[in-house]
Specification:
InterPro entries: Aminotransferase_I/II_large, Kynurenine-oxoglutarate_AT, PyrdxlP-dep_Trfase, PyrdxlP-dep_Trfase_major, PyrdxlP-dep_Trfase_small. Its cofactor is pyridoxal 5'-phosphate. Keywords: Aminotransferase, Pyridoxal phosphate, Transferase. The chain is α/β, with parallel strands linked by helices. Helices cover 39% and strands 14% of the residues. The protein has two domains: 18-43 and 287-382, Aspartate Aminotransferase, domain 1 (Alpha-Beta Complex); 60-282, 3-Layer(aba) Sandwich (Aspartate Aminotransferase, domain 2), CATH 3.40.640. Strand 3 (116-121), helix 5 and strand 4 (137-142) form a beta-alpha-beta unit.
Length: 384
């Protein structure tokens, strides 16, 4: 077969993600997998039954491109009740094939060759490749210290006439930190008077612990007027494989996102949308998730209390960082690989998300697992 010789990769330096690598190793070594961010317990049977009902009722063809009307309205009501922000269900929301597609469409809709996009590191690994695919330049700013705080003065200094977008993520993957009200007001002040778009990744919005509150970009008028806010049903309702999410934004931004969405997937999962529309009519289905996952977090931390790991309890998401510097000074990638091969437990090394792979001797563990799985994992950690 002839080989085409003049193919030029748009992402020549891209390698398999750390999630694929560590999950692959977990499978190879039959290890407990606390690396990749997905629950190993079942979706609520009520929600699965609603999908079956939707299929049996004939909702198996294309839905409206930007989403089923009933679901759009329920999401808008949820946002209004939680964040006191009114979006238009006809012009300011789109259902997407997971939050990653929402992020992709938002970046693709607005980033032109030469545009700069500020990304706070560590960061979810889809942001930078999508920026580069569109000819943009990621401008990377490292979160500070082992508690990963934003230096807003550094963010402000990074803004140039070519800055088109800034990407934030709260609650934050991989660190489990959250942005405070003060953080959001600082950002609001920095962006005031600029033409910079805010892309706010809020897929873990319903997983907040210890009485803290999620500070959505939708809550702040100076942010919501320029923000694309992305969310995920998969992260919320334990069914990441259903790949259903959404984004909200002012109409003048959303009309550009629709153009990309239409030629990317056109529309998403019709029966799942019908099911979610019915399911989220009961707010307890998402409001009860924070105590549910906090119980998981607390169980995991109590189980490893006698270990040699140190930690600050996660404030959100279903991830917990553990510092292993009392065990070894090996770099985190090496230690994570040994933990799989020699001890049968998979985690994610955090340095791969940092600028210059800055290594704080931390691994990220996913606690969205059954109690039995967490107990088995903790037993391994306590022996190190």
């Amino acid at each position: 077969m002839p080989v085409l010789r003049n193919i030029s990769s748009k992402l020549p330096d891209t390698t398999p993600s750390i999630f694929s690598l560590m999950s692959g190793m977990a499978n190879e070594y039959n290890a407990i997998n606390l690396s990749q961010g997905f629950p190993n317990f079942e979706t609520d049977k009520k929600l699965k039954d609603l999908v079956t009902k939707a299929m049996n009722n004939g909702y198996n063809q294309y839905p409206p491109s930007h989403g089923v009307e009933e679901l759009r309205e329920e999401i808008i009501n949820k946002i209004a009740n939680l964040y006191d922000k009114e979006y238009d269900p006809e012009t300011e929301i789109t259902l997407t094939a997971g939050a990653t597609q929402a992020l992709y469409c938002a970046i693709t809709a607005f980033i032109h060759p030469g545009d700069e996009v500020i990304v706070l590191k560590p960061a979810y690994d889809s942001y930078e490749p999508t920026i580069r695919i569109n000819g943009g330049k990621p401008v990377l700013i490292q979160l500070k210290g082992e508690d990963y705080k934003v230096d807003w003065n550094e963010v402000n200094k990074a803004i140039t006439p070519r800055t088109r977008m800034i990407v934030i993520n709260t609650p934050h993957n991989p660190t489990g930190t959250i942005l405070s009200e003060e953080d959001m007001k600082n950002l609001e002040q920095i962006l005031d008077g600029t033409d910079i778009i805010l892309l706010s990744d809020e897929v873990y919005e319903h997983l907040i612990f210890d009485g803290k509150e999620h500070q959505s970009a939708s809550k702040f008028p100076g942010l919501s007027e320029r923000a694309v806010v992305c969310a995920s049903f998969g992260k919320t309702f334990h069914n990441t494989g259903w790949k259903t999410g959404y984004c909200v934004a002012p109409e003048y931004l959303m009309k550009e996102i629709w153009k990309v969405h239409e030629v990317t997937v056109f529309s998403v999962n019709h029966p799942m949308q019908r099911a979610y529309a019915e399911y989220i009519k009961k707010p307890e289905h998402y409001l009860e998730l924070s105590p549910f996952y906090q119980k998981k977090r607390d169980l995991f931390l109590n189980l490893i209390e006698q270990s040699r790991f140190s930690y600050t309890p996660s404030s959100g998401t279903y991830f917990q960082l553990l510092n292993y510097s009392e065990i070894t000074q090996e770099n985190d990638v090496t230690f994570a690989e040994k933990l799989v091969k020699e001890n049968g437990l998979a985690a994610i090394p955090v340095s791969v998300f940092n600028i210059d792979q800055k290594d704080h001797k931390q691994l990220r563990f996913c606690f969205a697992k059954t109690d039995e799985t967490l107990e088995r994992a903790a037993e391994i950690l306590c022996k190190l």
